[in-house]
From TrEMBL:
One of its GO terms (cellular component) is plasma membrane. Keywords: Membrane, Transmembrane, Transmembrane helix. This is AsmA domain-containing protein. The keyword Transmembrane applies. Residues 49-213, 268-576 form the AsmA domain. It comes from Brevundimonas viscosa. The keyword Lipid biosynthesis does not apply. The chain crosses the membrane at residues 52-71. GO terms for biological process: regulation of protein targeting to membrane. InterPro entries: AsmA, AsmA-related.
Length: 681
């Protein structure tokens, strides 16, 4: 508890040291003014000149007030219109009566038949026509430096809003001013009435046409409140817009104004239920937003935000606007048969829009991710996504990349899938990062984690050209051969881990076009592994050894000392530079090409035994046809020649001599695996 005596002592010190000297100075200043200031002396004892001056001043004030009371304000319509037309470089006219009422605590004005023309490039339609406009302002707030409007009434207003592909906007009175992205800000209006309002929108960049009506009515019936309803088209498809709110009656700046909005168009439905934080400041609001549609890429047509292609989706979250910054926070939902959640921020960086997204999936269907790359997908009755190619037998999607959308914004994205549904590739986790700047898209990382091994790399897409130019560098580590070559008879055909790398670059609007025109290198390496002994023998066309083991159900394996396949790619054709499969019994060498554009292969494998074999067909194995269904066979011409030679020897020498062409002495040696692997990497 404080000591009262001590507090009183402090107050006495303050009074003696500060208040008493200040009071003395004020009295001294007052005495000097009384003794020396002529204005003060004249006011205390006015003479004849002072009385005349005061009378003239009062007469002038009275004359001004009488002039304002009886002035015909219509005389100012022409000067105001000419000044505004010159100021904003468009025709502005006040064609109807202009009435002003100044002598009130809420001065008001009324003007009829206002016309604001379009800019030079859009003069065929007026930007705004207003049949009747009434407005009042609160005088006491105006003296305090604030604008408050007790009432605004607008009747028979029609606005025509035109936006061109190059960014010009007919309603921008100062087109040279930078676009900050901030929303419309009006002074507080306590009562707003709009009757028979119309809005025509022509957004040429996204091909949007809209005709809407606007009304704001007072009352307590079902017709009271704010309504905006419109119909039109977006990119040739139907578009409807509805916005509703309560009556603008007793609206206060510190009380949020609730609204509901719904937009349907371009296969997308957007529903918002929220409030404007400070009424008439459209740059500040929050809303619960629901989105659903057939493809997230269609959202661009309604919002101008570039998003990837997806299967059908539904998302819900909280949308907040803070001037140019939009935040779609903590949203969640489904895309295809995968869950998706995260945060999305859209902001302005200079004159460009910037998007930042952090996206997550607890359980991803890998086919949903394929849709992002341009593959067509469908959702089955069981809720799973399936890739449905319009061209059967093809692996690479041919959906073109929309380069114009990549050029209009910048951004950064990170997507992570904690788990992946069971799939043929055995992908278990996904981690993808993307950065878009000035039309160049960098994908880093691209990471797929498998049950064993991973695929990781980067890609860059330069969309500043008419035809995008891309470069990819992908590395495969530790991928199991069992996932590449299926098992036969319940036992794996091969086992081991594969290493690989793809470095390709080239032009192309789609992945398929890129592959068809690419250049670079492809390589696949198996440092060591195991192969069914029967297939190892057949690799060298050792008929007796291979067939006997295969038909006898032999499950023994042979060592794969190494396998190396490296290709040089030019013009979309991969030509084998090194193709070696070295097993314990056979050394096989291959040659040929893979056409990445048509997704076909034409390979030839020649096998040599390392030990003597009785029946060996001196014929290469051929692998030909589509990548999805290659056909394995034997080159018939060599076998026919071998059979003919055997028949001739049997006829000329003896039946035993007929076997000589089929005997392989087994002179092949082990390959230099270290050198082969080093050259492939």
């Amino acid at each position: 508890m404080q000591n009262p005596l001590k507090e009183n002592r402090k107050w006495l010190v303050v009074r003696e040291r500060a208040l008493v000297p200040a009071g003395a100075r004020l009295r001294s200043w007052r005495d000097w003014i009384v003794a020396n200031d002529p204005v003060y002396a004249a006011a205390r004892r006015p003479g004849r000149a002072e009385k005349i001056a005061a009378s003239v001043t009062l007469a002038l004030i009275a004359a001004v007030l009488l002039f304002l009371a009886f002035f015909d304000w219509n005389l100012l319509r022409g000067p105001i219109g000419r000044w505004a037309s010159e100021r904003y470089d468009r025709q502005i006219e006040l064609n109807g009566d202009l009435d002003v009422h100044l002598f009130s605590w809420t001065p008001s004005m009324q003007v009829r038949d206002v016309r604001i023309g379009g800019p030079d490039w859009a003069r065929e339609r007026d930007t705004l026509q207003v049949g009747d406009l009434q407005a009042s302002v609160r005088l006491r707030s105006l003296f305090a430096g604030r604008i408050e409007m007790p009432r605004v009434a607008v009747a028979r207003a029609e606005a025509v809003l035109i936006s061109t592909e190059d960014g010009r906007r007919s309603w921008a009175l100062n087109p040279d001013a930078p676009d900050t992205g901030e929303g419309l800000k009006l002074p507080p209006i306590q009562r707003l009435i709009i009757r028979d309002g119309r809005i025509s929108l022509d957004e040429q960049g996204r091909n949007i046409r809209l005709e809407a009506t606007v009304d704001a009515r007072e009352g307590t019936d079902g017709e009271a409140g704010f309504r905006l309803e419109g119909e039109g088209t977006v990119n040739g498809t139907p578009l409807t817009v509805q916005v509703r709110g309560g009556p603008f009656l007793n609206v206060r700046r510190d009380r949020p104004y609730g609204f509901q909005a719904e937009v349907n168009g371009a296969g997308t439905r957007m529903v918002a239920d929220g409030s404007i934080t400070r009424p008439f400041d459209l740059g500040q609001f929050t809303a619960e937003l629901s989105l659903r549609g057939r493809d997230l890429a269609d959202v661009y047509l309604l919002t101008g935000i570039t998003t990837p292609n997806t299967p059908p989706y539904r998302l819900e979250g909280r949308l907040t606007r803070d001037d140019a910054r939009f935040t779609f926070a903590d949203f969640s939902g489904r895309v295809g048969s995968s869950d998706l959640s995260g945060d999305l921020v859209v902001d302005k960086a200079g004159d460009r829009r910037r998007v930042e997204a952090d996206l997550r999936s607890r359980l991803l269907d890998i086919d949903d991710l394929a849709a992002v790359l341009g593959a067509e997908t469908r959702v089955t009755g069981g809720g799973d996504s399936r890739v449905s190619s319009g061209r059967p037998g093809r692996l690479l999607p041919d959906a073109p990349l929309n380069v114009e959308r990549l050029r209009v914004m910048d951004g950064e994205l990170r997507y992570r899938a904690a788990r992946v549904k069971r799939n043929t590739l055995d992908v278990r986790q996904v981690d993808i990062g993307a950065q878009l700047k000035s039309g160049v898209l960098d994908l880093d990382p691209i990471a797929f984690t498998f049950n064993r091994g991973e695929l990781r790399g980067t890609a860059k897409i330069n969309a500043t050209r008419d035809t995008p130019y891309s470069a990819v560098d992908l590395r495969l580590r530790g991928y199991p051969l069992e996932s590449i070559i299926p098992a036969r008879g319940g036992a794996p055909t091969v086992s081991g881990s594969a290493l690989g790398r793809a470095r390709l670059e080239g032009p192309g609007a789609s992945i398929r076009d890129f592959a068809a025109g690419s250049k670079g290198t492809l390589s696949l390496v198996v440092p060591q592994g195991r192969m069914r002994a029967a297939f190892a023998e057949l690799l060298g066309i050792n008929a007796t050894a291979g067939l006997f083991k295969l038909l006898g159900g032999d499950q023994s394996t042979s060592e794969i000392r190494c396998a190396v396949a490296s290709f040089d790619v030019a013009g979309g054709t991969a030509t084998a530079r090194t193709f070696v499969i070295d097993t314990t019994p056979v050394l096989a060498r291959g040659s040929g090409t893979i056409d990445l554009g048509s997704e076909t292969m034409n390979l030839r494998i020649d096998g040599e035994a390392k030990e003597a074999r009785l029946v060996h067909l001196w014929s290469p194995i051929t692998v030909q046809g589509p990548l999805t269904r290659p056909q394995v066979g034997i080159e018939g011409g060599a076998v026919a020649g071998q059979l003919g030679l055997g028949a001739a020897l049997g006829a000329l020498i003896s039946p035993l001599a007929a076997l000589l062409p089929f005997v392989d002495p087994g002179l092949a040696e082990d390959a230099n695996c270290g050198a082969l692997i080093s050259s492939a990497r």
